[in-house]
Design a protein that fits this description.
With about 220 residues, the chain is mainly α. It has helices spanning about 10-25, 40-45, 65-75, 80-100, 105-115, 115-120, 130-145, 145-160, 165-180, 185-215. It has 10 helices and no strands. Helix 1 runs antiparallel to helix 4 and helix 8 (about 145-160) runs parallel beside helix 10 (about 185-215). It is flat.
Length: about 220
């Protein structure tokens, strides 16, 4: 049987995410992410810039709160915009996970959709799905040797959460392992240093700007 014929229809997949969104778009549930998503988003929205200036600042980079604040400036402060951003990241995670499956089958689609990581995160607004999305994007870029998208994905990953730097480090080791045949090539090392140093420089720059406004780095 053709594997593609056993997949859930793309229309049903989109419909699933739309139905979930309609169920959760007014739920004011941020959980542990109050201090890392909603509060910094309000701070960025009110003060502009890229730094959370609220006293509850946990010291995480603020890419997602900044994104949410910019959406608020267009559509107004609302819960549905936060849930919509979460939904888009969830859809991206689903696509990446689905594409990684060697065997395509409807059951695997359903398992991904109802997995605790994906499904539960659709009911809250946190940094876990964005963090996972950019990690999967970077992982996909490493395995397909797409250096430009790898650089972009790692840069965004480093600005989502402090864990992003740890994940980038792990991806760096994986990158070296996959390209172990080129370890004696100076050109390879120059390319690798460029790709992985840019996200680190961005993170360090964020830390210095954070120190300027708060008096501490991370």
């Amino acid at each position: 049987m053709d594997n593609k014929s056993t997949l859930v229809s793309p229309i049903l997949i989109v419909l699933f995410f739309v139905v979930v969104f309609l169920c959760v778009y007014q739920i004011p549930f941020f959980g542990d992410a109050v201090s890392s998503v909603s509060t910094p988003a309000i701070s960025v929205f009110e003060n502009s810039g890229f730094i959370n200036q609220h006293s509850s600042d946990p010291g995480h980079p603020t890419l997602i709160p900044f994104l949410l604040a910019q959406v608020w400036k267009i559509f107004g402060q609302s819960l549905w915009t936060a849930h919509l951003i979460q939904l888009l990241f969830a859809f991206g995670v689903f696509i990446f996970l689905r594409n990684r499956l060697e065997q395509k089958h409807i059951y695997y689609d359903l398992i991904i959709l109802i997995s605790p990581l994906l499904f539960s995160q659709l009911f809250t607004v946190s940094l876990q799905l964005p963090l996972f999305f950019f990690f999967l994007w970077a992982l996909n870029s490493v395995e397909k040797n797409k250096n430009i998208t790898l650089l972009i994905a790692l840069s965004l990953l480093s600005l989502v959460h402090l864990q992003g730097i740890l994940y980038a480090g792990a991806l760096g080791l994986y990158y070296l392992f996959l390209n172990r045949s080129e370890l004696k090539n100076i050109g390879f090392w120059l390319r690798a240093v460029l790709i992985f140093s840019v996200p680190l420089i961005l993170f360090i720059s964020w830390a210095f700007i954070h120190h300027k406004y708060t008096g501490w780095y991370i």
